[in-house]
Design brief:
412 residues; 76% helix; 0% strand; single chain; 2 domains; mainly alpha
Length: 412
């Protein structure tokens, strides 16, 4: 329960700071709405200090101090609520925030410090975003609510109970495989709500940029599904797919720097050039009409089928990778690099970089070949889903893939 590596004085000031933050939000909210303020900056700060003091009494063998302190504050909050009710104002938000501030103050002394800090920051955010959250809930239809439930079921209920260990000689890990399903579903899920929030242009671009930090292949499948369902957004979805691919090169560069910094000098300019090419291709104009984005036309925010297909491909290619290594050894590295592009290339590239016994020229060539293969496959994935942009997809991804070849040949 205890983590007292931080000095008591620092924990006390953290309690005051978090309480002050909550009080500042509550008082500013009261000024904006011109309503009755249950408590302001000073009162909330005192409540946090009060909670810290009650926790201190618990530590010096006064165990009833904390529950009695909470009970006394609860009584005070009830009196304040009843007084507010007489004026026609309803709502327990400020009173509940006061109780939470007391708990935060106590936890700053008794528990791991990250717990009260998380409660304080997240609590302040939720308090400050009241209007935005209420507006969003009003617009949330039944299909979206069910989609949220399904996603939580897939990510928070099913995944934790899956065994986290390797099975068979091919080292297949059920939890890792299901993480692929969650990842693809999450990107499509986020793309839907970002599109609804910001419109197809900004929402899908954000999906591509942020999703590319995790898996550009998963992004291509997720936004390809959006393009399939909403042809008027196909061009934006294609741009999001290419943006995600552009981020991939930067992500790989960072990963290599973290794993083996001295190897960065051999691949940095190739990664930057190929990333820049992708960004240029993503902003190239297309002759396909984008149409207008109507929020009401968006549907199916949660799609698990493409995620399951991608996870199946991941398993197949993982098995193929091990078989190639077993039968061909180092001689099959380039062939394997071309094959591995069907799925996530990060593990393959990082395993190459970590193998100091391999020739650097061979490693760089294998990395570039795997990226070229992955670029081709992302184009195939997206084109298979989006009929309206197949020509544009083939041209852009084709140019991108071909430009890998001279870099592979003349990389030195």
């Amino acid at each position: 329960m205890e983590d007292l590596t931080l000095p008591y004085s620092l924990r006390f000031f953290i309690a005051l700071g978090l309480s002050f933050l909550i009080g500042l939000e509550r008082e500013s909210s009261g000024f904006k709405t011109k309503g009755i303020v249950f408590a302001g900056v000073r009162t909330y700060s005192l409540i946090g200090a009060y909670g810290f003091g009650c926790a201190w009494l618990v530590r010096v063998n006064v165990p009833w101090a904390l529950p009695m302190g909470m009970l006394a504050l609860g009584a005070l909050a009830l009196v304040g609520y009843l007084a507010k009710l007489k004026t026609g104002h309803v709502g327990w938000t400020s009173e509940v925030a006061a109780m939470m501030t007391f708990v935060i103050g106590a936890l700053c002394l008794l528990g791991d410090i990250w717990v009260p800090m998380a409660l304080g920051i997240i609590g302040t955010f939720l308090l400050s975003e009241k209007a935005e959250l209420e507006s969003y809930v009003e617009k949330l239809d039944k299909a979206e609510f069910l989609a949220v439930i399904k996603f939580l079921l897939v990510s928070l209920i099913i995944m934790p109970v899956l065994p986290n260990q390797d099975y068979t000689e091919f080292r297949l890990n059920p939890r890792n495989i299901w993480q692929i399903v969650v990842l693809v579903s999450a990107i499509g899920f986020a793309g839907y709500f970002l599109t609804k929030k910001f419109g197809s242009r900004i929402g899908l671009w954000l999906s591509g940029l942020l999703g590319g930090i995790v898996s550009s292949t998963a992004v291509s499948i997720a936004v390809g599904r959006i393009a399939q369902q909403h042809p008027n957004q196909a061009v934006r979805a294609l741009q999001a797919s290419i943006l995600a691919g552009s981020v991939m090169y930067l992500r790989i560069l960072v990963l290599v720097w973290l794993i083996r910094p001295q190897f960065v000098e051999y691949i940095w300019w190739q990664m930057l050039v190929l990333s820049a090419i992708g960004f240029l291709l993503s902003i190239q104009k297309s002759s396909i009409s984008t149409g207008k984005t109507e929020v009401g036309t968006l549907r199916n925010p949660f799609e698990i089928k493409p995620a399951l297909i991608f996870a199946t491909l991941f398993v197949v290619m993982s098995v193929a990778t091990i078989l190639m290594q077993r039968f061909y050894g180092d001689a099959g590295i380039l062939a394997l690099a071309g094959l591995i592009g069907v799925t996530d290339i990060d593990p393959f590239i990082l395993s190459l970089v970590e193998q100091s016994t391999q020739v650097q020229a061979l490693i760089v060539s294998a990395i570039l070949v795997s990226m070229m293969s992955n670029t081709i496959m992302k184009g195939i994935y997206f084109g298979a889903l989006s009929k309206t942009t197949r020509k544009s997809t083939a041209v852009r991804y084709g140019i991108w893939a071909i430009l890998h070849i001279p870099i592979i040949i003349f990389w030195r």
